From TrEMBL:
Active site as annotated: E423, E837
Biased composition (Basic and acidic residues): 28-37
Family membership noted in the UniProt record: Belongs to the glycosyl hydrolase 1 family.
NADP listed as a keyword: no
UniProt cross-references to Pfam families, sorted A to Z: Glyco_hydro_1
Polar residues composition bias: residue spans: 39-53
InterPro entries the UniProt entry points to: GH, GH_1_N_CS, Glyco_hydro_1, Glyco_hydro_1_AS
Quaternary context: Homodimer.
UniProt name for this protein: beta-glucosidase
Keywords: Glycoprotein, Glycosidase, Hydrolase
Gene Ontology terms: biological process: carbohydrate metabolic process
Organism: Echeneis naucrates (Live sharksucker)
Amino acid sequence: MLGWFAHPIFVDGDYPATLKTQVEEKRKECPHSEPARSNRFSPMSPSTVPSQASNVWKKFSNQNKFERKLYHYGSFPQGFSWGVSSSAYQIEGGWNADGKMPSIWDTFTHNSTSIPGNADGNVSCDSYHRVDEDLYMLRALRVKSYRFSLSWSRIFPDGRHTSLNQKGVDYYNRLLDGLVAYNITPMVTLYYWDLPQALQDLGGWENADTINIFNEFCDFCFSTFGDRVKFWMTFNQPQTIAWSGYGLGQFPPNVKNPGTAPYRVAHNLIKAHAKAYHTYDDKYRKSQGGLVSIALNADWVEPKDVNVPRELMAADRALQFQLGWFAHPIFKNGDYPDAMKWQVGNKSELQTLSESRLPSFNEEEKSFIRGTADVFCINHYTTKIVHHATLRDLSETEEAWGLRRLLSWIKEEYGDPEIYITENGVATDTKTTYDDSARVFYYKTYVDEALKAHNLDGVNVKGYIATSLMDSFEWLNGYKVGFGFHHVDFTNPNLPRTPKYSAHFYYQVIKNNGFPMPEDEKMIYGHFCKDFIWNGKGLSIWDTFAHTPLRVFNDDNGDIACDSYNKIEEDVALLKQLKVTHYRFSISWPRVLPDGTTKQINEAGLNYYHRLVDALLAANIQPHVKLKFFLTASQKMLAGWENETIIDKFRDYADLIFSRLGHKVKFWITINDFRPGTLPYIVGHNLLKAHAEAWHLYNDKYRAKQKGIISITINSDWSEPRNPHKQEDIDAARRVVEVPFFFLIKFYWLPEFSPEEIKRVKGTYDYFGFNHYTTVLAFPYIMYLNCFNYHRGAGTIADRTWLDSGSSWLKVSPFGFRRILNFIKEEYGNPPIIITENGISERGPIDLNDVHRSYYYEKYINQVLKAYLLDDVNILGYTAWSLMDNLEWATGFSERFGLFYVNRSDPKLSRVAKTSVAVYSNIISCNGFPDPSSGPHECLNPEPEGKQNPLFFHTKQRITTVVLIDSLTPGR
């Protein structure tokens, strides 16, 4: 993108070799184309309705998007437990090896036709035979803990101790010994959904006898493995066992009886958990010193409207039926939540049942169950929005904020327990092998929400277990999706494992113990040079395009816009309030030359610009003028910039402006380049030649007398590789900055400069005018639409952790600003740089407290200061886009970039300062960022009216004015 225009002007007068090579390849392909707490919880009172934790919704639900999404940098405490998880049926294979007998999942998969590809766990990852490979992956990740489950039917094939299978015991001993040898803490789940089929034949979890049989199994595991296992979980997601297995009938044992079976099963599961807990407590805790808990699951549930009581109660009720169903008896008072008892009891009464479908605990059972967990283990994946009558899923990949709220809710509802996040992760299609950037974004956001909960909300988060170690059998999805940090090739008999991008990312998170503030994000304190140019970017005229049907949303057009044509004094007053030293605005070619030629000069139009320049100079504000250009109707009929004759017309237009305004204007811009999303190469070719002609005209005819400077403004995003560990992405990122191949182009050949034209174009600059807004992540991409029309070169996406704006393409990524400024320095010989546009938009309801814009300017300008002070980039000025909300091209007035709000419901179009005005004006007053540790800086004391001295551009000449001769669009 950048090199297309910059390379001819700033290097050798010709297009970059990479651009010419790729266009030539395209031409050949299309030859016919045209160019330490207590372990026991104290008894707690039952939940109110809504719960006492409802203040969590009130605290967080009114956050704006900026507050919700702002990334938090910091670290977890030393000793934080970082781990990964798996489960026996999903990875072990060896379904009948060495005496193992079937579980209910073996039976189900062997008889089911509903799983994609009729997949099963017979072999899966074959971990039963590949202990060393699994240990190698764990060591490479540098995890501190590994959560896995024991296969009940591998140890007790028929579910009972009398059927003990020593070879199964030996397998787990090998795994545990390896983990301990590598200082990886085993976190063992005793039951992860794979009940021995022999026990299911006796009624499974609907049979109360299973409680004692399960306790027998737990007792054996405690005694056999407890010397190495110090963290036990009895059940994984008992709510899933009860509801999916016995209510919906989706999971084995496929009982579809939602009215009563889930409640009976849950009742037995809670009793079984409590019994196993007491067995450990009575027989093993003193000698082994371990922890026992249960892994519960919960989505976060957000009320549709937190200010509506019944919506709040609906959200609370949804959480109580999912999480409170098991957490309330164990962590509160040994009984079910009142919300559950009331709801199920009332419906049971309506059904004329003699008793509630929800079983009850007697007082002895309540006492036995209460407090039977040493820590709180929670599995979480996504968030839901609840209406009093409906429950709607949100995308699990984008609503990470739900995790922070869930953790805070657990803290408030269950007495501030120690919390381990025992499952969290996201699946990708198994076609995604190692390049799983979506999973990286997921972990980057979700782990950060856990960090916020710990650091900002005081939640006692002790560990985070990511799901999962490797791709495996994913239950009803078979092998269609994978959650793993390692890709497993299930089509290869050797089942090779390959670390994904997410594995490298998670390794770094563990190494850093969170997200310490990166150097790129740290603020620097200091000042720009005393004659630094501080600019406020003004408005442009866009009459022709604004009247084109179907392209401007909401019928917005530029007829009135901000009416700056009639409000010079008001606009200048805003600039004085901002304390800018310069003001960059544009001149309209059709306002001055209605038919685009010098045959007819509109003196009234020229007089407007004289009046504006004079008003600025009178206010000690140097005009930094951008002449905004759009073709007249007659010029468009002649194909506009696709017609080479436009070059001479542009030269004549420039000649007129130089002659009329040059005695006041000392700073010229020929063309304000727009983002080349639809720009044919021939247009770019003619724009470059027109710029060169205008530059030579000024250099030869006006420079000596007027003593100004002249250049071009170029727009570019910065680009980073989507996967920094992949050379193809690194190359694509370079191409995005250098060559605009990631969009559809109109013609497929790159025009050639003649030797004379190369000499004419090369060196036609006095400074580098630069527009910048955002950063993208690049990857190789080719999509053929047909032989003559396709995407080629690179695709781009944004990091989901970057803050949004009112424009879909603009994500807040300050670090890229410094990097692209250094790129310009290194690539083009450290030219003088004037940043001619930079800013952020908003959408939706008017809010004068534009905290996101204040944040944007502070962070982006600080990156400019870093480039100036630390990297010695030759930066001479900065321009904010824009002074006020105005017509934003094809989006009309729906996107607002302004520092000042324009009230369009007021016939006078009154202007009102937003919060960002004070932020930007303070940066200007201080000429940078004074160190706050030194106390209040004198620059923050307002100077008396009229005392401000104008600042001037520091170069060979003393500059007072900038004029932009052509601006197709503001670089967006």
